[in-house]
What we know:
Two copies of one chain form a homodimer.
Chain A (H helix, E strand, L loop, with lengths): L3 E14 L4 E10 L2 E2 L10 E8 L4 E4 L1 E6 L8 H10 L2 E6 L2 H18 L6 E6 L19 H8 L4 E7 L2 H6 L4 H12 L5 E3 L6 H9 L4 E2 L5 H9 L3 E4 L6 H9 L6 E3 L6 H6 L3 H10 L4 H6 L3 H6 L16 E6 L4 E7 L2 E5 L2 E2 L62 E9 L6 E11 L2 E2 L7 E6 L8 E8 L6 E4 L8 E5 L2 H13 L3 E6 L2 E7 L11 H17 L7 H6 L9 E4 L2 E4 L4 E3 L5
Parallel strand pairs in A: 1-4, 1-5, 6-7, 7-8, 8-9, 9-10, 10-11, 11-12, 12-13, 18-22
Antiparallel strand pairs in A: 1-2, 2-3, 5-14, 14-15, 15-16, 16-17, 18-19, 19-20, 21-22, 21-24, 23-24, 23-25, 25-26, 27-28, 28-29
Amino acid sequence: METERADLLVRGAKVYNSYFKRFVTADVPVRGGKFLYIDSRRSGAVEADSTVDAEGLYMVPGLIDIHMHIESSMLTPGAFCRRLAECGVTTIVSEPHEMANVNGMQGVLDMIRAGENSPVDIFYGIPSCVPSTSPELETTGGIITCEDMEGLKENPWVACVGEVMNYRTIIRENQLEITRFLKGLREKDRMFPIEGHCPALLDLDLARFLYLGINGDHTEHSMEELEQRFANGMFMEIQEKMLRREVLDYIRAHGLEEHFCFVTDDVMADTFCTQGHLDALVRRAMELGMTAEQAVYNASFTPARRINLLDRGAIAPGKIADFLLLSDLDAFAVGATYKNGKCIWSRGEDRTGQGSMSRDGAERPGTERTGTERPGAEPDRDMHFPESYYHSIRLEFQEQSRFAVPMESDSGKVMVRVMEIQDGSTKTKETIRKMPVKDGFLQWEGSGCLLAAVFERYGGGQAVGYGLVTGDCHKQGAVATSYAHDCHNVLVAGANPADMKLALNRVIEMQGGMAVADGGKIQAELPLPVGGILSDRPAREVGEKLAGIRRAMTSQGYRHYNPIMSFCTLTLPASPALKLTDKGLIDVKACKIVPLKAE
Amino acid sequence: METERADLLVRGAKVYNSYFKRFVTADVPVRGGKFLYIDSRRSGAVEADSTVDAEGLYMVPGLIDIHMHIESSMLTPGAFCRRLAECGVTTIVSEPHEMANVNGMQGVLDMIRAGENSPVDIFYGIPSCVPSTSPELETTGGIITCEDMEGLKENPWVACVGEVMNYRTIIRENQLEITRFLKGLREKDRMFPIEGHCPALLDLDLARFLYLGINGDHTEHSMEELEQRFANGMFMEIQEKMLRREVLDYIRAHGLEEHFCFVTDDVMADTFCTQGHLDALVRRAMELGMTAEQAVYNASFTPARRINLLDRGAIAPGKIADFLLLSDLDAFAVGATYKNGKCIWSRGEDRTGQGSMSRDGAERPGTERTGTERPGAEPDRDMHFPESYYHSIRLEFQEQSRFAVPMESDSGKVMVRVMEIQDGSTKTKETIRKMPVKDGFLQWEGSGCLLAAVFERYGGGQAVGYGLVTGDCHKQGAVATSYAHDCHNVLVAGANPADMKLALNRVIEMQGGMAVADGGKIQAELPLPVGGILSDRPAREVGEKLAGIRRAMTSQGYRHYNPIMSFCTLTLPASPALKLTDKGLIDVKACKIVPLKAE
């Protein structure tokens, strides 16, 4: 046998085998960006141009996250993916429905273009619900039509239909445009994955949803909901909220490992920097008792298969040479990340070619990550979006009088609908409260409720929706954000009109972002000037500012495992029960606008 | 909830769940040819136009055979598939490389066309090795070029590249046309399955084969070969020869169930009628200790996923409603077969619409099948191939003198290469024998060897290759066949020239088929007038005649588990070790013609 040539030889690592779910010491030559051979005999049959000594290290496939949204990080795709390389994630499927809400099809295309120089592979889900409900219930900066969706499907980087969220409507009405699109798609393409979003659907309702060809779900479920999804052939995408011991035990007890994977869905910039990404879920699963061998399988092999990326997800001949070298398997500490057989990141060394991701020599960067981007570095070229994205908050500065809510009442009191925020969930509860009325205005100050207002910011007439908030939210000051799911109109909620005005106008002034005001001062702020939802700064800087917002909200009394997510989804009418858009209060289950005044 | 409508309701069966690998009693409504709901609560929420009472029956997905060749049955696609429905097989992936050898691309297209009215779904593999080696080593009636292959890939019924058989060549040379085709295919399509055929390949050689993107193998392996294939990400297709207890035990012990399926590869008409098809492998696996739940999974779910037919292979909402009703799970006795929610066969009743498959009321047709097609029924319309297929043996009648083999020898003796047939395998062994020479001719009669001759039959110059055969073959008379892998030139082998002439000329007279002669009489014959390889008669008739050939061969001393397969692969130079084509003896490993005379 003549000697074979390779580009790279990874020598002596304990190599993960995705089929036997075990590690085997081997030499692994890579040629043309693909694994050539897993030489467990260490025969020396292949010679390479360069060699990596990996004795004592663990070699696992690059992680694959098939359900996530880059925009949730509030980072541009370039900054996001450079941080991602440090977390050992080499392929993602991102659904840009936030930017689609801001700028329609052009927003999707600009997100794709902004990710073109990424060190990792970014595939895309087709945004299927923009707006999340309908233009009657919320105003967006753009909509995605079925023609847009059909056009996107032809893009070779498009891997699936992104989450179909209007599940209640879709199972009731069969003449919807989206339903026709899905049916047509399934007739033409039996393979194309269609991601679902169907919390709480059960029995015939769930079957109706699946019948349309929607075959994945990443939302949070009870055990009964989980069981029904598995039993009906839905591929389960387990995100952090679902990563519970009983879930993992159930999967193991029933041998369902091949039918699920881990996904991140939404990771914010601060936890991204401190905790990591899909690697954090792998670590969490191991803490919950899953073996490393099993966790790696569900973070690489099953997601690749689910999303039809059969060219990756395993270290085997002919697969794309995306892999990680780990110094410590139990800690899942990523020491180096390789994409297409080339090192794109290693501890203490920058290989991204971007000059902004050099790392300090932290002992366990897998569990405690603190970025060290060069201070004052300019935003990278590929972080840039067209200039128009920097002028997307089409709102005048507002007067304090905007927070006086007119209300008629003969008795001096009125029953009002209130959104009650509950820790542990992004769903709200509708509660009815009695509230004083004086001189034709609702006396909400000091009532135990915050006033919330959503200002339409796309220049379409400056609608404002008013609501009331109580529960585990902040108790003083005000918070404003233009990052507000999914429409990203400007939301402000506060305990007094002065702080509300201050926070709101600061967001307008920044042309997008988040601001917390209290006692007449801005306590924390994060500029998000790109479309009003993304920063153009590096991950660490954004992470630190976002952590500041989080701290300020907490110190004002917000008691929630994720106050930012809780606050930014107050405006999401696809999620129960009572939400607020620029059109007003939305009864989510009934899919309709309801007045502030109850009955 | 309003009442939902369905076309069909299957009530009360024990329904197989492919995800939990268990049976659950449920009502199953079907709408538009797809499963709508698996109602394990039996809520009555769906009303249907018609109902099947399936209380006490087992409902399992239709079986899926992803690696097989219709031509191996010697039946036309129509006749084949009607019998298939009785066996519970609802989807096949057939690779028509036999007809491609006979008539090139036109042969492939005519096979596809002839299957268009089939009651089951026929997908196709692209013949990738026609001829199996090269035109220097064997003469075919047609070749398949890479342009042909690219054209076929666009056909929506084409599901994979059929078995790449020239594995020794392909791993040594990287400038082959097929290699370029495979590389180009993989660059454009990361999903498309490529079937391999690589018995005995190991280590770096196996890796080289996989590196090209070839990712399935259905051939026979040692345990070491099996382990390496699994470990390197090859999907394993277990055919009857591999269906051994140690193989199933190994798979179970290592949790490799998701990475293999059952396939039939080649099923002949007689065993097809008496034993069944993929259902027979399910029964055999159960005899070897596999649970019914596991065997069904590997005969429906994993093959569907392997071949990217994600619209089927499970009884779940949205999947194509292909299913079987079984009265006896342990016997895997198929009582009725449904395709797209419609009954295409049930015991004692003909639903194929073809009028030729009514069944008698046998107690256990699953294990003992004897067809009762209407005697004298005309061949069905869709069994017909164009007239030219009926005149495909372009050979004159031959004289007995064709079996006198000229040979020079000074000593009156010569050392000759002999193909030794061994029971248990279709491979031959090369042995060297001393044989007398007299008057310039080899004295093969009475030598303990048969003379074999392959007559080129495509009108290209009437080449004849001569060889000698010994071992477990017949000891008297002669057998001739125009069904002779893969070129289907006419092979005759016998103990005396008179019977050889008789058998050969009978095959020529029938314009294709098999004939066994002994003592100057035809003992058995099977006409195969369609391209010289297929009958246009119903399965049972062909099965009975083929069984007659088998009996005649056995009574003439052929001692092999499958004498017909053994005999018909004597001409296959893709299978070790010494084979015979119209060009002469082929040393398979060296890929070259070698003389009859050794040294």
